[in-house]
Amino acid sequence: MSGATASRWGLRTAALTYLTLLLIIPVATIFYKAFEHGFSAAWESITTHNAIHALELTLLMVAVAVPLNAVFGVACAILLVRHRWWGNRVIDAIINLPFAISPVVIGLSLFLLYGVGGWFAGLSEAGIKILFAVPGMVLASTFVSVPFVVRETVPVLQEIGVDQEQAASTLGASSWQTFWRITLPAIRWGVAYGIVLTTARVLGEFGAVSVVSGKISGQTETLPIFVAKQFDEYNFTGAYAGAVLLALLALSALLAMNLFKRKEVA
Amino acid sequence: MGIAVEGAFKRFGDFQALDDVSINVPDGSLTALLGPSGSGKSTLLRAIAGLETLDSGRVLINDHDVSTRPAQKREVGFVFQHYAAFKHMTVFGNVGFGLSIRKWKKPAIADRVHELLRLVQLDGLADRYPSQLSGGQRQRMALARALAVEPQVLLLDEPFGALDAKVRKDLRTWLRNLHEEMHVTTIFVTHDQEEAMDVAGQLVVMNEGRVEQSGSADELYEHPANEFVMSFVGEVNRLGDHFVRPHDMEVVLDPDERTEEGMVQRIVALGFEIRVEFVLGDGTEIWAQLTRPELQRLELREGQIAYLRPIQTKSFNGGPPSSDHGASTPRGGDDGGDAEVSAAV
Question: Which of A41, A255, B16, B220 is 20 to 30 A removed from B201 (C-alpha atoms)?
Answer without folding.
Answer: B16
